Amino acid sequence: MQTMTGAQILMAVLQEEGVDTIFGFPGGAVIDLYDELVKTPIRHVLVRHEQGAVHAADGYARASGRPGVCLVTSGPGATNTVTGIATAFMDSIPVVVITGQVPTHLIGNDAFQEVDIVGITRPCTKHNYLVKSADDLARVVREAFHIARSGRPGPVLVDIPKDVAQAQVAYTRPAEVNLRSYQPTYKPNKRQLRKIVGLVREAQRPLIFAGGGVVLSKAAGELTAFARRTRMPVTTSLMGLGAFPGTDPLWLGMLGMHGTFRANMSIDACDLLVAIGVRFDDRVTGKVESFAQRAQIVHIDIDPTSIRKNVPVAIPVVGDCRATLEQLNRMLDDEDLGAINGTRDAWHDQIAEWKSRVALAYSQGQDIIKPQYVVDKLYELTEGRAIVTTEVGQNQMWAAQYYHFSHPGQFISSGGLGTMGFGLPAAIGAQVACPDRIVVDVAGDGSIQMNIQELATAVQCCLPVKVVILNNGYLGMVRQWQELFYDKRYACTAMDHQPDFVKLAEAYGAVGLRATRPEEVVPVLREGLAAPGPVIMDFVVAREESVYPMVPAGANLTEMLLV
Questions:
Q1: Global pTM?
Q2: Known catalytic residue at 488
Q3: What residues does 45 pair with on adjacent strands?
Q4: DSSP 8-class letter at 165
């Protein structure tokens, strides 16, 4: 048995958990932790703001499939993480946030840089801990990682007082985690699966709706096999992009408020909807009462609280998406589905007609750059292989619509919380996780400025992230709503003063490029993508271009605004 300080125990357990990178920002309450951190092989990425640390850990987790880790100090360091924690919570991302805390005897005394971060984050963490004894530290950290990555993943916070980090205690490696009150259900009920097989066999207008749960459970291969085996068209939520190949003939595009015409019409007309790893949030359903009203709905999810939460379900299945699809595929191998090709021809013909009637389209003229054109050309020049992070707003939607994602972990965006400023630090985390991949942040001129300071992190760490700014001089999505629903009263959405993004990039030590005309788009993209370090590419685009289709809030999915 070995005597170690709490700080040493923390570093030992982190290494046992396979942590290779920590994103963080030091301070007084964590100085002992940092003193031990630099003695380990764990890489530390020094961010410029604690919100950036959590977003970077989040991006790392989404790109790698492993929990992201960040380390920050107490007080303002801890409170600065809250937006990032809530972002990860809403999108079910495994992140372990380690915060410093004042010594235990000062807790509750309004000590310098004291805040009850456990209380503050209780609603937006999967679980959190205040460690009051160094004897508990190893067990708590092991539990934190187990909870973060198991079941429905999510962020877990561990608050470590300074005296706990300094205390010396006997250390033994903790046993495997076994929490009696926390036992996620991974294996689905076979009787429910047999019912699904029966519905799949009989349905004439079936549809698959996949979400982020398919990506998180690494079930993309099983989903693709299921869809092709049954000739079922596939749509996804924003978080599900990449779960099914974006170039497959069965692919309908994204569903919901800014989904494709054919996807939204298919939801309204289908007679069977197999929903896998989704939450049925309001951006997807539109008017809930009319959502998929002709269909029997199957809902597969590892989180039982998500099932029947927003929409009625005919067949609920609690289980891991991958394990469930694997079993379904095995069952289908024993079924005679020979009649499917004939009975579903009319359904596929109808979908093809919807696609031909209203396709995602724009007209690129000779004078002004259309933002869709930039994303189109980005897709072509990267051959669809880049990891794309986004900020939030119109830029996010154009990236989702015009970059055709074919692999899970390729599209990294703040879905549930809609966090502006997410894209750049998330790109940094994704680049750390995947150093040999091209990582591009598609940004707006408003959102990029919320965490632009992280460009210094990318430069210092030699991370060649590329930022594509669709610069329209507006807070574009809010402006679009004001145009459509508020008689063009553009209240406080015009960004009347912007920095020179090229000079700003150069000031940080990055490369800055700009395109103001359509013929400059491809050369700027080529130069920026080929540059060895971080690059900001500023594309001055049409100011009042809008994202279409668009379903007004509270409307039926078929009530799309198309122009």
A1: 0.97
A2: no
A3: 23
A4: H
